[in-house]
Amino acid sequence: MAGSRALEEGETRRRGFKSRVYSAENPARSTKKKERMESPVKIIVVTGTPGTGKTEISRILSERLGCRHIELSKLSRERGFISGYDDERGTWIVNLEKIRRYIKDLSSEPNSPYIVLDGHIAHLVSPKAETKLMFVLRCRPDELERRLRERGYPDKKVNENVLSELLDVVLLEALGRFPEEIICEIDTTGRDGVEVVDEMLSIIEGKKRKRLGEIDWIGALSDNGRILDLLKRIEGGGPRFS
């Protein structure tokens, strides 16, 4: 089954990822890593699978920090960074290179304010030098499925995003572009935006350690067999909940 094969491949990637993730409390961290976290933030990236709460949380975070919030999906439509439309998934196809250039130019402006960059592609377009902190929002896949179906997403889009979250796709993409020490996972399952932002601010202010590599949806859902039900729905597209 396609979902089962993807699950096996994802677990292999996860084992490789976990083998190299260090503890955020490791006293052997280099001075360079400490200095990076202590330096002023220019771009704070908020990324994650669709449905994890990025836009609401980014709006609250930017208000609390008093800085600009850029919602990439909205920016792409307003600036014409659209290259097409995917009818099957019901989603716009964006031009990543144009977005990258725009964000790079914006972040290099003199006296540019700090920016909260929000979107499921934010980790793919944010300029490396200016990105000081990256939050990868996570949501337990069965709850994510519920959220996406409540939005009216097509089955294909729901299934792809749920599988993506299950296999840590956004996190692994982020780790492919940015150093581990600036990346932090935040679980939004069953939490409201204010609670999540409170945790983010504690991390930004150095009052709470960053967490990375601690979320394991495959393990969490395997304990009571929920993962099998989830995979059946993903492969069959169907019913949703009892």
Structure in words:
The chain is α/β, with parallel strands linked by helices. It has a single domain (35-236), classed as P-loop containing nucleotide triphosphate hydrolases (Rossmann fold, 3-Layer(aba) Sandwich), CATH 3.40.50.300. Helix content is 50%, strand content 15%. A five-stranded parallel beta sheet has the order 2-5-1-6-7, sandwiched between helices. The chain is globular.
Question: What does this entry show, briefly?
Answer:
The protein is an alpha/beta fold. It has helices spanning 2-18, 31-38, 54-65, 72-79, 96-107, 122-125, 141-150, 155-166, 169-177, 193-204, 217-222, 226-236, and strands at residues 43-48, 68-71, 82-86, 91-94, 115-118, 131-138, 183-187.
H-E string: HHEHEHEEHEHEHHHEHHH
Task: Give the count of helical stretches.
Answer: 12
- Examine the coordinates and then state which fold CATH places here, giving the name of the CATH topology: Rossmann fold
The total strand number stands at: 7
| Spatial extent as radius of gyration | 18 Å
Large-scale geometry: globular
Low-confidence stretches: 20-41
CATH architecture: 3-Layer(aba) Sandwich
- Helix and strand composition category: alpha/beta
* Major sheet attributes: 5 strands, parallel
Strand order of the largest sheet: 2-5-1-6-7
Distance between the termini: 24 Å
- Binned, the helix content reads 40-55%
What is the H level of CATH, i.e. the homologous superfamily?
A: P-loop containing nucleotide triphosphate hydrolases
Count of spatially separate domains: 1
What do the pLDDT scores average to? 84
- Output the CATH class name: Alpha Beta
- Share of residues in strands: 5-15%
